[in-house]
Design goal:
Layout (H helix, E strand, L loop, with lengths): L1 E6 L9 E2 L11 H12 L3 E2 L1 E4 L3 H12 L4 E2 L4 E3 L14 E2 L5 H9 L12 H18 L4 E6 L1 H12 L16 E7 L2 E6 L3
Parallel strand pairs: 1-8, 3-5, 4-6, 4-8
Antiparallel strand pairs: 1-9, 2-7, 9-10
Helix pairs in contact: 4-5
């Protein structure tokens, strides 16, 4: 089985705002970013499409699934909540500067097991994303899946495949509109590319 992970395109939100599971609209560059993604994906024949239910991913999945430029056997988009970005709880849609420094420091020193107030930890994100991967691998043996999601879930899956601890996730850069491919061959997973 191969999984092609696509991070949603750029967003229309200032860089100093903390967002995770909040709904955020895509940037005006959406169409050009979709064109670039189509060029990256057009050589692959996909069996199924999965998406985070957050609008920035689902909008992209709908466009990719409906275009005649991609070969997709089942064009129905399967939304899965486990593909959502990290939930930042009370920090959602706040400026990073407005978050109390002691809370932010505590989280940044141990984001694996410390959550923002009323949010989730990266360990929890990692668990739900790896559960998703385990579930779909049982249904699509030998298949090629297109998964539209967020930077956090992609980092978590790459870290899982590479055996990296959760606290090393932010060392992996995942750009907006990037393509990351993972292959499971004879039960041995490997990362084929990151940020293509």
């Amino acid at each position: 089985m191969r999984v092609t992970l696509v991070r949603h395109t750029a967003l229309d939100i200032p860089s100093h705002i903390c967002y995770g599971q909040s709904e955020v609209v895509v940037a005006s560059s959406f169409e050009s970013e979709v064109s670039a993604l189509l060029r990256k994906l057009k050589e692959t024949k996909f069996d199924a499409v999965y998406s985070s239910p957050l609008q920035r991913c689902y909008q992209l999945a709908r466009v990719l699934s409906s275009t005649g430029e991609l070969q997709i056997i089942s064009r129905a988009i399967r939304q899965d909540y486990r593909l959502k970005e990290l939930h930042f709880g009370d920090w959602e849609m706040k400026s990073w500067d407005a978050i109390p420094r002691d809370e932010l420091d505590r989280w940044s020193y141990d984001y694996a097991d410390t959550s923002p107030p009323n949010g989730e930890t990266f360990t929890q994100l990692h668990a739900r994303v790896t559960e998703f991967l385990k579930d779909v691998s049982g249904h699509h043996l030998g298949g090629e899946l297109l998964v539209v999601t967020h930077g956090g879930p992609i980092r978590a899956l790459v870290a899982e495949i590479l055996g990296l601890p959760v606290m090393k996730l932010f060392r992996i850069a995942i750009d907006h509109g990037s393509v990351t491919r993972i292959e499971f061959n004879d039960e041995v997973p490997r990362v084929l590319c990151i940020n293509a």
